[in-house]
Structure formats: C-alpha cells, structure tokens
Amino acid sequence: MRPLEDRIAKQIDSIPRSGIRDFFELVQGRDDVISLGVGEPDFSAPWHIREAAIISLEKGLTSYTSNLGLPSLREHIADYVEDKFSVRYEAGSEVLVTVGVSEALDIACRALLDPGDEVIYHEPCYVSYSPSIVMAYGKAVPIQTRLEDKFALMAADVEAAITDKTKLLLLNFPTNPTGGVEPREELEKIAKLAIEHDLIVISDEIYSELIYDGHDGFEVPEHTSIASLPGMKERTILLHGFSKAFAMTGFRLGYSCAPVVLTEAMMKIHQYSMLCAPILSQMAAIEALKNGAPEVEKMRRSYAERRNLLLRRFEAMGVPCFTPGGAFYAFPDISQFGISSKDFAFRLLEEENVAVVPGDAFGEAGQGCVRCCYATSFQELEVALDRIAAFVDRLRAAG
Ligand code: PLP
Q: Model's pTM, two decimal places?
C-alpha cells in the first residue's frame, strides 16, 4: 500500500498548520499559564442569549432551517446591518446565515475563484485567509501593512499589487492581529481602485463593534464599511458574525450580505456542505440582535479598560506598542531584543508561563511583534504583565 501521506490532495498538503494551534499545543497541560493567546472573549455569551437557546430547545426546535437561515433572523440581520453600516440588504435574497464567518469566508472564496485567480489581502492577518484562498485554488497575494502606518492598509500598496489576474480584495478592519483600523479617506481610495479595476471585495468586519478612541477608548469612533461607499455595495461581500462582539464563539454563527448573484453562488456550496446553520444558534442570534446591544457595550468598555492597562504597562516597560483602534489585540514590537517573535513567545512561555502568539504566525509582516489578546480578566492581565515585565528586564540585563 502506498503511504497515506501520498494520498493527501496536493492543495491541502501545501497548506501549513496554523501557527497558533501549534503553539497552543505546547500550552496544553501546563499549569499556571496565563494565556493571552486565543482570540476569544473571556465572557460567556450574555445570559438572555443563552436562555433563548435553552427555551428553543425546550420548545423542541431541533429541525433544519431554510438553507439561507431563519427568515426572521435574516430580517433582524438586514436591519442591524443597515443600522450599523448604513447599507440595506434584501433579507430574502441577499443575506446568508453561515457557520461562523469562517464558513462564509470559505464559501465566498470557493464561489468566486477559478484556478490562478489572484486575491490581494493585507498581512499581518487572520490565519485563515491564505489557506481559504489556496483551498479554493486561488493565488494568495499578501501585501504588508506597517507599524508606522498604524497597520492601516495603504491604497498605493493595493494599487501596486493589482495585476490582470486580480479578482478579489480581502479586507479586515478592525484587524486581527494588529487592532488596526482603516481611515475613511484611505478606504475611499481603495474603493475607487476596486471600481477602476473591477474587483470584488470581501470585507470581514467581525470586530466592527469593538472599536475604541485613542484617548480612553470609551468613545465609539465611526466604523465605515466599504460596502457603504458609493458604487461598492454591488461588488462587496460583507462578512460578519456573533463570535466576538456578542461573545458567542461556540454558537458558530455568522453571515454574509452580498448581491443576489453572489449570495446564490455561495448558497449552493453552503447547501451541499452545511445545509444550514444550527437552529438553536440562530434562535440565540435573534435574541442577540434584538436585545444584546447593552451587553455588547459593557464588554466593549471593559476591553477598552484592559487595552489601556496593557498600553500603560508596555510603555512603562519601554516596549513600543501602537494604540489599537479595535478588536481585542495588542501587537507590541519586541524587535529591540534581537530575538525572533517565536523565540520571544517560546521563552516567555517557558520562563514566565505567559502565552502570547508570535507575530509571524499571521504572516511574515508580523515578525518582530507578538499578539497579546486582552480579552482576559483584568486580574490575570495584571499578573501576566508583571511576568512580561520581569522577562523583558532579564532580556535587557542579558544584553
Ligand atoms: N475573521 C477574523 C478576522 C477572525 O479573527 C476570526 C476569529 O478569530 C474569524 C473570522 C472567525 O470567526 P467565526 O468564529 O465567526 O468563524
């Protein structure tokens, strides 16, 4: 028999395992580790949302739903998106409920890409982007964002990367792992490029509720969705979900909003691979959209306080960290210590029992930085920061 390793599809064989997962296998089974690693709220989903799922189960709602998702959920999504993003989608035909943004991203790539089509996206970025493109037989074309631009995406860099094979532009603001947000003027320039070059845009806005001002983080700055800019709704697939702002990661629920033709194509894949998203999660999501806003705001303010703590402490340590405008990640620059991001993260784990993610797990552009997720309790964060300070002192003393 030929070795099983030889039977794996080339496309899948070519994809590396997630750098985050590899790292977290090391964390498993160690005592006293404080993890600033996994990008997940430390809150449970608010009680009224959990209760909606329980009541649905008690009522015996255990069936499939329409492939697109429950009509009432799609209505609520269309209203929510109009309210938040100032763009109106037709609930009956332009909204597709998916198993997380993860599925929405996968089926958007599969619905649109032919072999060799190029997808431009910005790095450092969420670990799934390149694999999702490659699994759909597309060519991943990363462009780097930089600390000196506060990890915003520069339209000039997008323009330089466009070729006659470019089909898609994949954006994520606020950005995982940097916390970068995109200034509206730059987004307008990028929209203009998309129109000029006839590109389709996938815009992953999963962190769009979690935005902070530069001062104390409490004001809610304006988030602009590229879908709301003139001429963009007709060429944008807006992805959003419940995992982050509503602390509902385990419910596995997301959605896409896109023109009918694109929604139909994505729906075909969804209907044959997933059939539909779980009904209990959909019922919980209706409750989240109806009554979840105050809890989201409470969590956002709590993240803002934690972000500020982190920034104060990194400043005191002499570790440069730009002020993230969104999500719940800080991306401090550790290049002064002359070791790689991986070495920094491994040694911090070994010596101080604190887990952070090496920046290059999010693409080469992340080398020299580490990702710290601050969706961790205030008390744990304080202890973790004491330990990081001790570690950094030792690195400096060792010269
Ligand atoms: N998009 C980004 C930018 C993320 O950071 C994540 C999760 O970390 C996802 C999508 C996946 O979200 P979901 O839980 O909805 O699949």
A: 0.96
